[in-house]
Every structure is written in structure tokens, then in C-alpha cells.
Specification:
Blueprint (H helix, E strand, L loop, with lengths): L1 H16 L5 E3 L2 E3 L9 E4 L20 H28 L2 H10 L3 E7 L19 H16 L3 E8 L8 H4 L12 H18 L5 E5 L22 H15 L7 E4 L1 H4 L13 E7 L6 H14 L3 E7 L3 H13 L3 E5 L11 E2 L6 H10 L6 H14 L6 E2 L1 H12 L9 E3 L1 E4 L12 E2 L27 E3 L8 E3 L7 E8 L3 E11 L4 E7 L2 E2 L4 E3 L4 E15 L2 E11 L3 E9 L1
Helix pairs in contact: 2-12, 6-7, 10-13
Length: 576
């Protein structure tokens, strides 16, 4: 009888998959036609679950409930509700999803906060479970937009009832209340939540899967508070198994994705697996991009004949992104990077502009002192919410280029149309990999305990080149700084007429040692020129590099820094 039930289930599942649902086929994730699919995704972090670091409150208000308390203290409950309504309305729109599809993404990971769908247990009566329309409406809209753009949406429970980890900001955990692991009521609510989602989306093929629980990090029996030394993880296995069974009683169509402890990566005690249509998620931050870094997951894939998926990664340089994605795709592993939007976001596809006056709010929240006036604070916060609209974002084309084009080729691409004669700003060097478009000594953070800042200035671009704001009179707003010996930059320029050029080099320095020359196709096209001390890093001078011969048409010009210790604003090419 048991065999008949299993066979029946598999037949139903196979028939459903044929209608277009992503599903497991051995070690692969495939579409409804059985074709292997590599998920190229982005996580919509910060939309349903605010994390303090994304809005620069991480040092004093990391969790969403603390952020909301700070805002309410400033502007009152009614205005706070108005702010959050605008923040969520603008946070993700159809235009965002259309843009992601145009850039090359085929999937989205939605980090959900349970409290948009159902109240906290302390707000329920007699242990009942009631439902809120807001979260379901947000999700319904997102599914509709994803379907229109042919993007798969993976539902991720990022903030579970009570919170699932000691890393509080991730799951909005409040340690004054029972956690997910300390409350049967919270576990019951989480199960009911997944049942509700399964009922609502069981027939929708654009739902790519159910990521049951994001980054659990809890010590059940061992010492490490984030569960990294847990050997059994029995409560985590039991809860995910329970929820899988609850989903399967309703929905036999969708892929179920599970995560280990220790921010998703500790799978001790989780095996054996319990469902025919599952995938294992792992998360990867701040380590090397070699096979050894993912070998444990590769072993699980082989041993348990199950697909693996990089469910979250990012917060690094373009160099690291290209390496990580190349590693994943060469091993047939899909990925979802993180996040789409945050304030002053260098390492993401978009950046939200910090509103004027916001630093005054941050300073008050952090240090106290004179309280900003209510009207002022509300105006600043509403401007912040408006800045989340796609039309107000800064699009990080360099990040998009690294994630998609640079994964396929080491060819360089012009960052901007440079016409010579004319001015070429130093920060507008070519798009491409380190060693091809530029050469810099510090290009990524590979260490989880000792942070390496790849762009020491943290401005404009996410490459290894160090960029700061520029104080010179003539500027595009930025300068290349912290230049070291033997580094270089390449620029693609269109020369109108072959001939000899004089090049004005605009620089600043407080130390001796600056020296550079120009090169094309590994051949010098100029002499070396020394850059004398200008009198300070904000004191700008110009030196002239004479008789640079350039051919007509496209030239790839490399500026080689024989010596560093200076800032570079621009090179201006003037025809004899």
C-alpha cells in the first residue's frame, strides 16, 4: 500500500511538472520540459524585511522592530505608518522586475516577513491564526510582474514567527519574546503560513520554489550561538520535515528548498532527505572562489542525488562577483545575489540616494542630543521612501557587467564614449576584469574575519580601483586615489584623426614618487613622466606629456603607474 501511494504521488508530480513547474531531476533543477535551468537571481532584501545596515542604522538599530521604534519616536505612529506604506509601495514595482529581466536575471528570491501575512502570536486570540491581506497582495503583484517578464519567483521565509536566529537583524528577532525554537505556537504559525502559501500558489508555475527558512543560526545543544558547531540540528530537521509534509498535503508541484544551520550552511543531522522534489540551499560570503570553498555542497549533491543552489551571496567586489558566478555556473549551480537596493549601495545593481538631512536623523538615533523636529524628520523619511523608486535609483552598470558579460569573456568594453581630442576622466576606465580593464592590488574581500576594502574610497564603481570624491574645479565628481606602483588603467577612445597629441595630466600629491607612461597593445606610446609633489592631496596641478602618437579610430590606451602616491583626476588629449 505504501509503494502505491509513493508511485501515485510521483505520477501526479511528473504530470504537474510537465505543465511548467521547476523541479528536481536527479542533481539538476529543470523546467517543465525537463531542460536544465541555471537560476540567475537577485534577492529583494530590505523590502519586506528591513535590515539596519541597508539604511545605515546597523550600528544601533539592526532589527526592523528597532528601526520602527526609532522612526515612531521621531514622527509618531500615524506618520510612521504613512512612511512604511510609501516605502513598501516604492520598494519594488513592475518597473523593477522589468529592469531585472532586461539585465539578465531569470529569477528572484523574495525575503518575506511573516508579520505582513499574519499577526504575531501575542496578538492572536485563543491560539487562533488570522491572516493579513497586505503581504499576500504584495506577493500576488510580484508574481504577476514576474510572470510577465518570464522570471521565476522563489518564496523565502526570511523572518519566521519569533525569529530563527541569534543574528537578530536578519530575522527581526526580539530576544524579549519567545523565538521560533522556544515556542510551539510560533512553529504552528509558521506551518500554517506555509500551508496558506501552498494553497494560494500551488497551481502557479512562476513560483520557482519554497525556501522554507532563511539562514537559521541557533544553538540547540552546542556552544556556538549561531549553530555552527551543531552536530545534530534535530529541531531544524524536524521543523523543515513537518512543513514539507504540510505543503505536500496541498501542493505536489513546487520545489522545496531547505537550509542548514549556521546561516544556511551546517547540514549536520539534516540528512537523510525526505522528499523527491527538493534542493539544498547554501550561502556564500567573504571567502575564496575555488572548488574547495563549495566542496562540501558538491559532495552532498553527489551523495544524496539532490540539486544545490547558492541561495544568497554578494556584498563584495565586481572581481569577486565574476569569480563566484563563474564558479557556480561551471558547476551547474544557480545563484541569487543580495540585495537589490540599499542606501549608498556600491556592491549592488542599484543604489538608493541618501536624502538630504538623513545624517541628522542618524546622528540623533545614534548619539542622542537635540531631537529633530517632527516635520523635518517626516520630510526626510518620505524623501527616502521616494528615492526607492526605480526612476530615482543609480544603476550600477559596472556590477551588472561583471555579473553577466564578464562571466563569459575577458574582453573589455568602453565605460563611456571618449572622443579624442578631448578629456578622459580617470574614473571612466573600461569595464572588464582585473588584469584586462585595469590592474589593482586589492580587488576583493576573501576573508570573513579580516575585511579587505577593494575600493578604498567607496565611490562610483565596485571594481578594485580606489575612487574618492574629487575636490578639483574641473571634475566629473570623482578621482582615482590610493594609486600604488605598477597598477594601471585602460581607456577605450575614438581618435578622430591620426597624429601627435600633448596630454595634460591633472593630479594631486603630498608625497614624491608619482610616475606614469602611456601604452597601447603592449607598446609604449609615450615617455615616462614624473609627477612632482603638488602640495597636498587637495592641491591640484597639471603636467604635460608631449608627443603621444595615436592612430585614427578605436584606441585602447593604458595608463601605467610606474610610481604611486598621487590622485588622478583626468587626462586631456590635445592635438598638435
Amino acid at each position: 500500500m505504501k509503494k502505491i501511494i509513493v508511485i501515485s504521488f510521483l505520477c501526479i508530480a511528473a504530470a504537474s511538472f510537465g505543465q511548467g513547474f521547476l523541479h528536481r531531476d536527479g542533481q539538476n533543477i529543470v523546467d517543465g520540459n525537463g531542460k536544465n535551468i541555471v537560476l540567475r537571481g537577485l534577492g529583494l532584501g530590505g523590502w519586506m524585511v528591513q535590515e539596519g545596515y541597508m539604511i545605515q542604522t546597523g550600528g544601533f538599530a539592526g532589527s526592523q522592530y528597532k528601526i520602527k521604534q526609532k522612526i515612531t519616536d521621531l514622527i509618531g505612529k500615524e506618520a510612521t505608518d504613512e512612511f512604511y506604506k510609501a516605502y513598501k509601495t516604492n520598494g519594488i514595482t513592475k518597473r523593477d522586475i522589468d529592469s531585472l529581466a532586461a539585465w539578465g536575471f531569470n529569477s528572484i528570491r523574495l525575503p518575506m516577513h511573516y508579520n505582513l501575512y499574519t499577526p504575531a502570536i501575542e496578538n492572536e486570540k485563543d491560539g487562533q491564526t488570522t491572516w493579513l491581506e497586505e503581504g499576500f497582495k504584495m506577493t500576488d503583484d510580484l508574481v504577476k510582474w514576474c510572470a510577465a517578464s518570464k522570471i521565476h519567483l522563489i518564496l523565502d521565509l526570511h523572518a519566521a514567527p519569533g525569529g530563527q536566529g541569534k543574528d537578530a537583524a536578519i530575522s527581526d528577532y526580539d530576544d524579549s519574546k519567545p523565538s521560533l525554537w522556544e515556542s510551539t505556537a510560533n512553529q504552528d504559525k509558521m506551518t500554517a503560513f506555509w500551508e496558506k502559501l501552498a494553497e494560494r500558489y500551488k497551481d502557479n508555475p512562476w513560483i520557482g520554489g519554497y525556501d522554507i527558512i532563511n539562514e537559521p543560526n541557533w544553538n540547540f545543544t552546542e556552544a556556538n550561538i549561531n549553530g555552527c558547531d551543531e552536530a545534530l540540528n534535530a529541531p531544524l530537521r524536524a521543523l523543515q520535515l513537518r512543513i514539507t509534509k504540510a505543503i505536500r498535503a496541498i501542493d505536489t508541484n513546487h520545489l522545496i528548498i531547505i537550509e542548514g544551520n549556521c546561516w544556511g550552511n551546517n547540514y549536520n543531522g539534516i540528512f537523510p532527505l525526505w522528499d523527491e522534489n527538493m534542493a539544498l540551499s547554501f550561502h556564500k560570503y567573504w571567502n575564496k572562489n575555488d572548488t574547495a570553498s563549495i566542496q562540501t555542497m558538491l559532495n552532498y549533491r553527489t551523495q544524496y542525488n539532490v540539486p544545490i543552489w547558492l541561495g544568497e551571496s554578494g556584498e563584495n567586489s565586481n572581481v569577486w562577483f565574476e569569480e563566484a558566478i563563474s564558479l557556480m555556473e561551471s558547476n551547474n549551480i544557480g545563484w541569487a545575489f543580495w540585495p537589490m537596493k540599499k542606501i549608498e549601495n556600491l556592491a549592488g545593481v542599484t543604489s538608493v540616494t541618501k536624502p538630504a538631512g538623513y545624517d541628522k536623523l542618524l546622528n540623533y538615533w545614534k548619539k542622542g542630543g537635540e531631537k529633530p523636529k517632527t516635520d523635518f524628520a517626516k520630510k526626510v523619511l518620505m524623501q527616502m521612501a521616494a528615492n526607492y523608486k526605480m526612476e530615482h535609483l543609480t544603476i550600477r552598470q559596472d556590477v551588472i557587467d561583471a555579473m553577466f558579460r564578464q562571466v563569459k569573456t575577458n574582453d573589455t568594453k568602453k565605460y563611456k564614449n571618449h572622443q579624442l581630442p578631448g578629456r578622459v576622466y580617470a574614473t571612466e576606465f573600461d569595464l572588464g576584469q582585473n588584469g584586462y580593464a585595469y590592474s589593482d592590488n586589492d580587488v576583493a574581500n576573501y576573508n570573513g574575519t579580516k575585511f579587505t576594502q577593494w575600493n578604498k574610497g567607496g565611490k562610483m564603481r565596485n571594481d578594485g580601483v580606489d575612487i574618492e570624491s574629487c575636490t578639483d574645479i574641473n571634475t566629473n565628481g570623482f578621482q582615482v586615489s590610493f594609486i600604488e606602483d605598477k597598477e594601471w588603467l585602460q581607456f577605450t577612445a575614438d581618435v578622430k584623426e591620426e597624429g601627435s597629441f600633448d596630454v595634460e595630466i591633472r593630479y594631486s600629491s603630498e608625497k614624491a614618487g608619482g610616475k606614469l607612461y602611456l601604452e597601447q597593445d603592449n607598446v609604449r606610446i609615450s615617455e615616462s613622466i614624473v609627477l612632482p609633489v603638488s602640495g597636498g592631496l587637495k592641491t591640484w596641478k597639471t603636467v604635460l606629456l608631449k608627443n603621444v602618437i595615436l592612430k585614427k579610430g578605436i584606441n585602447k590606451i593604458r595608463v601605467n603607474f610606474e610610481g604611486g602616491n598621487f590622485n588622478l583626476n583626468f587626462l586631456e588629449f590635445k592635438k598638435h
